[in-house]
Amino acid sequence: MKIKLVIVYLSVTFARGQNMTIQVDGRTVGSESALNLVPGNGIIHVCTDNHANNRVDCTPSLNSALISTHDTVHANENYCSSSNGTTAYTCRLRYKTLTAYNTGMTFLLVADTPCNTSCSLNIDNQGPVTIKMIDGTTDPRGTVVPGQPQWVFYDGSVFRLMGVVSTRDGRGDLVARRLIGSMDTLGYAAVITLDVTAGDMHKLTTVNGIGNATINATTGGLAGQHMWIIIANDPASGKAISFGANLKTSGTLTGAAGKSATIHFISDGTAWYEVARTANL
User: Which residues face 131 on adjacent strands?
Assistant: First the structure.
């Protein structure tokens, strides 16, 4: 009897002392008597002792404060295509139905009808919301063009167009407070190459020891593009400036010592044509 008790005691002791072999993706990482689940960055473990099935059940979850959920990210679900043929745009999100408009939401709107005056957007039947320019008050007036994607931002009251900073008039023409062209400074030489992509305003200052010069444009520009050249003559003498490649003018521009001149061009897509010139400024 004593021998049986000793055998039972040793068997229990041996069983309690056995180690578990732990593997991750088929690779052994350790062999211990206990497995400890340590929460990682954004990963949380909740474990319960399941007596009925003689086991411990552990359920992992995400800490949404660190890892955004599907609903908060809208994983590529912001594409909104309206094809109802009106400016009361409607659309449905592709993967998950929108349950409410929340401030800060953005959507990529593609419409099939131009918004020449006012328009609205209704997503997943959450109700129509007025679309405004980025200022939140001005109607789009032509900035929503069929087939052209536009980002819209919900500010809590209206959808604001994010990609357009200027407004348009009733004809679709751009209206803005100011348009300031960049200034390109040219080096003075007997032959000057003017890069028409460097800006629409170009300025050169003559150098007395070099003499007269010829300006050549790199290309004929874009149809409808305007360009201005400012020529500042040095104090010693006035220079005669001729115009060569891609520039069509009324002739040489003769300057006066210490005086400046301007010349204005417009392009038809193949060449630059002189519009006006002013000398002795």
Answer: 159
